[in-house]
Amino acid sequence: MTKAIVIRSLGGPEVLKLEDVPLGAPGPGEVQIRQAAVGLNFIDVYFRTGLYKTDLPFVPGKEGAGTVTALGEGVTDFAIGDRVAYASADGAYAAERNVATKHLVKVPDGISLETAAAMMLKGMTAQYLLLQTYKVKPGSVILFHAAAGGVGLIAGQWAKALGATVIGTAGSQAKIDLALAHGYDHVIDYGKEDFAERVRELTNGAGVDVVYDSVGKDTFPRSLDCLKPRGLFVSFGNSSGPVDAFNMGLLAQKGSLFATRPTLFAYIATRAELDACANSLFDVVQGNKVRININQTYPLAEAGRAHTDLETRKTSGTTLLIP
């Protein structure tokens, strides 16, 4: 048996219940790990509420890190005692668990398991956004919503290291100050300013090359008004609710714009893609180009309180659940 958070009905944070659940031996191609920490992400909320579909009951969470304690049949690329992390294996909210090795990467020496749990999903999201969905380079001008969030703080530092001018949005002076300390050249208080008008001012009317938007409903379609002609709108989340259906003609009207709705899991679908993305992240962290902030920790049993704080925007940076 092990302790895990189980969701038996969809709803608010109150449906997150700590239970004793069976834990068998790892199956073929799996390892068993004792988890040091579990990452909290908005995608966990989407599954909890039913915005993203899965069968009930289920253990939420996709990101964690720990130590291998047992090997399943046929596993040769991992050993007992290996420190490992993952960002795409459902069922993370648990003290111990079995994980298919296709989801795992080995954590390099010098990176703690807590840091690994804090950065895998958010950091690899920043990697594919900045280096694959749109290739940020010296001279790029970007807008990143939710600049003080977990992905936002990593992306700000990484984009600055790539030579970009980095503009962000945030909802309080404390979050603005935090983002400015993590690579952002300008941070707009969306509660006090029209962010699209301010972006135009900051860019002398030119607009930005790309908008990275994980907020969704509250920032659309104004995000489109921030873009240069033929700019790219990247919708990679919807913390305020999903973007409503819109007429594709709007993209033509606003400057022959491009739009995409990517997910990390399409960018790390193969072993080669996962390793390349993770290694790129490890390199910038070990090279001190990106530092990982663990700004909040909660006991696993208090996952409901963590979800409440996340949804009410009381958190910044990265949040961990500790089994």
TrEMBL record:
Q: What Gene Ontology terms describe what this protein does at the molecular function level? A: mRNA 3'-UTR AU-rich region binding; NADPH binding; quinone reductase (NADPH) activity
The record's listing under SUPFAM superfamilies reads: GroES-like, NAD(P)-binding Rossmann-fold domains
Q: Record's Pfam families?
A: ADH_N, ADH_zinc_N
- State the EC number(s): 1.6.5.5
InterPro entries recorded for this chain?
ADH-like_C, ADH-like_N, ER, GroES-like_sf, NAD(P)-bd_dom_sf, QOR-like
Leader peptide range in chain numbering: none
Q: Name one GO cellular component term.
A: cytosol
Q: Which domain of life is it from?
A: Bacteria
Task: Supply the name of the protein.
Answer: NADPH:quinone reductase
